[in-house]
Amino acid sequence: MQTIVYIEKNPITNKSRFVSLELAYKAYTLMQPSKGEVVGVFVGDSLPEDTDDLFKNGLDRLIYYTDDNLKNLQSIAYKNIIEQIIKSEEPDIVLFGATHNGRDIAPLIASSLRTGLTADCTQLYIDDLIYRKENKGQSLFQVRPAFGGNILATIVTPDNRPMMASVREGVMTLPEKKLNKPVKLEKANVDFNKEWIKNDFLSIIPKIKHVNFDTSDIIVAGGAGVGSKETFNLLHQIAKSLGGEVGSSRAAVDFGFSEKVRQIGQTGSIVRPKLYIACGISGQIQHRAGMEESKKIIAINNDKDAPIFGIAHKGIIGDLNEILPVMLHYLREEE
Amino acid sequence: MKKIVVLAKQVPDTANITGKAMKDDGTINRAVLPAIFNPEDLNALEMALEIKDKIDAEVHVITMGPPRAIDILKHALYMGADKAALITDRKFAAADTLATSYSLSGAIEKIGDVDLVLAGRQAIDGDTAQVGPQVADKIGFNQITYVSKLQEITDDYIIVQRDGETQTEVIKSKFPVLLTVTDEANNPRYSNCLNMLKFFKSNIPSAFSDDERKIAEENGWVIPSYDLESLELDAEKCGLNGSPTKVHKIKSITLTGGNLEMYDNQHTGIHKLIDDIKKDYIEVD
Ligand SMILES: Cc1cc2nc3c(=O)[nH]c(=O)nc-3n(C[C@H](O)[C@H](O)[C@H](O)COP(=O)(O)OP(=O)(O)OC[C@H]3O[C@@H](n4cnc5c(N)ncnc54)[C@H](O)[C@@H]3O)c2cc1C
Ligand SMILES: Nc1ncnc2c1ncn2[C@@H]1O[C@H](COP(=O)(O)O)[C@@H](O)[C@H]1O
Question: Cβ–Cβ of A117/B245 closer than 8 Å?
């Protein structure tokens, strides 16, 4: 078997995006049993600085196509180039990061190849598929939340190849120990036509607030129950003394207590810190989708029946207005 | 004049799923869920109407779904859309994004000479964000996804802001182009009272008796409806047949509570919690 992983670069760090490393390793584990190959595909102006890291996470080969015109997302050009590579490699599986750019081009490619694409998978595995009593052989089983996260559906692509799926950042894990694989770069042998450049980028404004959940072991998150921007500030102070980052539910963003970049959940970031402290968050399914993989969850809520207690490991039932200042007091207290 | 098509979907209100909506076998009973206008499709429609406020444009709204999806088409007319059409056929049922985009692109081609297609970024029942781009591919349009602002539109080009993850991009494109619009783009307007009076009897042709239909036509109440045949589509590419992805298995999500350790909400409990956190997560030199 063969799996192609679409590799993306973070324009700010010039390195591979985390999701690309995560998918390289996922593809590696999927391909291990059949000793299949994992091939990265990169399109852009220049390769990420840390290509060797992609191999340490599981790539066997990286096929790239670089051109100054491809610095920014050119949907049609990217699609045409990647499609040519897929047609010549004939992979069984193609994986995309469910990033804004991945979600832009993956559907174009699936449509053009007339094959299936399953968005935002949370689990991928390979097994024999029996579909309508017919054995379809080794197939990709794609598990994804649907219906606003209320159900988990397992999707298969019985008759079309490649089987395509996208996965959000933070969902798959990196290897505990880096792999020892040689770097193998290969320039793609494809046609490129300047007429495929259809988007004229007039300007690019970097987002100032960039919250880095990936490197935080502790996340202190607040929801609507925090009640005010002032009280939310206490969360920032608590996070600071713990050396953690502040997250929030969508309701807290909607109320203006917190910024959109901090939103955790189905339409925000997916996080899996060592400790997640949920303050005044009810734990609706869309929020849980972004944090329930955290190693330990502490919930503070005045409603003992709040669903968040259903997934928490430690909890306090009570009023945040009273609890947060006391927490801060003990945190700052010298040992 | 610019011809704009807005893709709108009627979706179950997944934000308000209660226990009653779950069937005994753990699947969701769509029938008891309220059906709403997919939120980001309202943003797409609002963008189309803002364009119409600025330049000479005609706004068509199309939806693929069962006859009850007529409700969102009427809502679109109330907001100010010029034309609406329902795409409905039993053979379209159980379509995945590929089959859906195929049927929708057939309808766009039927409208003809379209300059701009606006879709919502994603529908809240599937959250796939795939149908917009797949329609763009099928009709051969350029596309810009995650559009968070309309900046400028003229007869020759459109300038929008795209919401990238680490950056906001200002992009100019010629026509034809398809945009997928996010909820940050605008605040959808309310229904207009005069439009409500004008269109509240609107429906698909088959809903009117022969006598009524003449009056309905004179008053502009007839919302055309298209099926597989009238769109000249290939049955093999529609509905379940045309869907490469199949649902293998469905599981509803139940909370699996761990061992929940409670602390009291007085000083002693909070003190102990902080001590435990410090012990487990903060390295002491
Ligand atoms: C398509 C879609 C996508 C979504 N995506 C996301 C997402 O990515 N992330 C997300 O978070 N949500 C998302 N949502 C919204 C989600 O459904 C919930 O509405 C949201 O998570 C609720 O936030 P909350 O828990 O802060 O607020 P609420 O549900 O209002 O809960 C507030 C909690 O605070 C408690 N409380 C109140 N006062 C106090 C007090 N003084 N002391 C202690 N506790 C108190 C209450 O008991 C309650 O449990 C999405 C919804 C939809 C439809
Ligand atoms: N059945 C449909 N009828 C009309 N438009 C649709 C339909 N399904 C999806 N769309 C459009 O495609 C967008 C993305 O849908 P989805 O890929 O399901 O997340 C929606 O916001 C709509 O604009």
Answer: yes
